[in-house]
Amino acid sequence: MRPHSVLRAALDIRWTPSSQIPPTFLLPWRAQLHQSAHSHQFQTELPAQPSSQPPPSIPIPSPIPSTRPAAAPASPSSMPLPRSSGKPLVLSKSLQQLLPHLSAQKPHYISAHIHRFPYLLTQGDTLRLPFHMHGVSPGDVLRLNRASLLGSRDYTLKAGTNSTENYDGKRTGEPNYLDDRLFECRVRVVGVDSGPMVEEIKTKRRQRKEKHVRSKHRYTVLRVMEVKVKGLEELERGAEQLILQ
Amino acid sequence: MPVQGIRTVATNQNGLGAFIVQCKRLDLHYCDWYGSSRGMNSFLTSELLPRLSRMHPQVSIHISPRPNKHPVLRAHYINGREKAVCVRNLEKEQIMQKCELLVQSQGGKNRKIRGRNVLSENESVRGIWSPFHGGIKDV
């Protein structure tokens, strides 16, 4: 039995509506994390959510406030659903054969995408994003659900055209992503870094005036908490629709 | 000679398991007489200060006068460094933003990082490539 389910069974928080769940700071933080495979459970497990929602273009589910106890509860309909919810999870024969080897061999690496850009991550890495992510504060746990590569020392799972979302039909230039039910990648927001003040001098021709442009950027720093490849049994337990080819 | 272990220093992996806010102390300095401290004084008497302390219970907030000087925010971090921001002539909302900025910071220097977004302490997962193992091709 997994520690998650033991914890849930012990605390009996699985199917209680959000009004009866104790406040967030009383729960262990692991209890606030969600499993993306259960979309309906995903909604009931999160007792609270920050009032400032990230825009839907960010390919990350809503941050889980683990350090801020005073957050307003919101209706579950406003919660963004996992990307691949509703579609059946298709596992090919080779994937069924090789996925146990991949999930058993640790450590794993993942090429996770944020705003389409890939970042090669392992557990414990520090990721300084090249932008300031709004709507999150230090201590929040995010789950990255877009990845194009997933691997260990000997095995690599690469996003192909089958059983993945193909963005090329929309002509947006998005890469192919793996199904987000196959893995779990969690990062924690550690802080907000700042670059140095940069001063650029702009000039025009034939005049002595110089324009000084000053800029100082802020960057969100993340720490990779876990990179996990799910095994076949876990996928069978979690997915509502599983097609074995 | 006995076998000696390799001396290493534990690396900081804050946030991997537990998460500790890096700012440990925030000093707010004000002046009763200077006009540049008007926004600071209204910040201290407004409800923004209790809201700040409620949002960040891990940070100890100290308020002290600094007569005949501009108002200053000074944050102390776990790594031993400190950051100071002069808040002269700022409104109370701007001072709140500066406080948030100091609390959310990690206390390091403001460095420019070119292209190195991921910093890793781990060994390479797939190992180092060797020309003598696997995939040897004849020309």
UniProtKB/TrEMBL annotation, chain A:
Residues 37-87 are annotated as: Disordered. Residues 37-46 have a biased composition (Polar residues). GO terms for cellular component: mitochondrial large ribosomal subunit. Residues 67-85 have a biased composition (Low complexity). Transmembrane segments: none annotated. It comes from the Eukaryota. One of its GO terms (molecular function) is structural constituent of ribosome. Residues 52-66 have a biased composition (Pro residues). Belongs to the bacterial ribosomal protein bL21 family. This is Large ribosomal subunit protein bL21m. The lineage of its organism: Eukaryota, Fungi, Dikarya, Ascomycota, Pezizomycotina.
TrEMBL record, chain B:
Pfam families: L51_S25_CI-B8 (PF05047). It is found in: Mitochondrion. GO terms for cellular component: mitochondrial large ribosomal subunit. GO terms for biological process: mitochondrial translation. GO terms for molecular function: structural constituent of ribosome. Residues 32-106 form the Ribosomal protein/NADH dehydrogenase domain. Keywords: Mitochondrion, Ribonucleoprotein, Ribosomal protein. Belongs to the mitochondrion-specific ribosomal protein mL43 family. This is Large ribosomal subunit protein mL43. The lineage of its organism: Eukaryota, Fungi, Dikarya, Ascomycota, Pezizomycotina.
